[in-house]
User: Fold this.
Amino acid sequence: MTAGARDIAANLAAVRAQLADAAVGAGRDPSVVRLVAVSKMHPADAVRAAYDAGQRDFGENYVQEFAAKADALADLADLRWHFIGHLQTNKARDVVGRASWVHGVDSERLLRELDKRAAAAGRALDVLLQVNVAGEAQKSGCAVEEVPALVTVARELTALSLRGLMTVPPLVDDAEASRPWFEALRSLRDAHGGAAALPELSMGMSHDLGVAVACGATMVRVGTAIFGAR
Ligand SMILES: *Cc1c(COP(=O)(O)O)cnc(C)c1O
Assistant:
């Protein structure tokens, strides 16, 4: 059930404190870790409550739900939307007009379509390549072997900017189980120009955000710990 406004504010404060602790513990500057509040399956009012508590970056997974929510909250001009779900090419236009970031790019076709749509809309678009680091069947994301070619294509495009890599490791309760996958994403980034070329690493969710920050995450995508169960 979606948490009430007061709980959302308290949850946000707790998550921010957890992120800051993890950053300091890893010798990192807490201000470089961006919290993306994942509001999928929660109502626009919950997003508004988080916004009122100072949150500005929000993530959504499903195009229709995202479009409706973004339009309902269009009065919040400095709210930034991150589309973090699997995106079909034919839905790219609905996302480009509304999102500042697209985290789940995993094919040349989608890269080119997003670039075309961003150019047509006169919008800048920041994207992340989603990598299926564990090679799980049925999971979104490109294979590790496809990363070099996709990075090359993305660098030729002019409306979108490739800003980094994103991953969703195999879902298990033990946060430590995510560590090798987060380290794999970071190594992959380091093999493609390092932080100078690809500054962002989007990794870590409610249950493993501390480990993600220890491994170098610059964006964590947190839903349940802020908004409650879905
Ligand atoms: C739903 C979702 C999240 C948030 O997960 P929680 O466990 O609720 O924090 C993060 N990333 C992606 C890609 C998601 O689909």
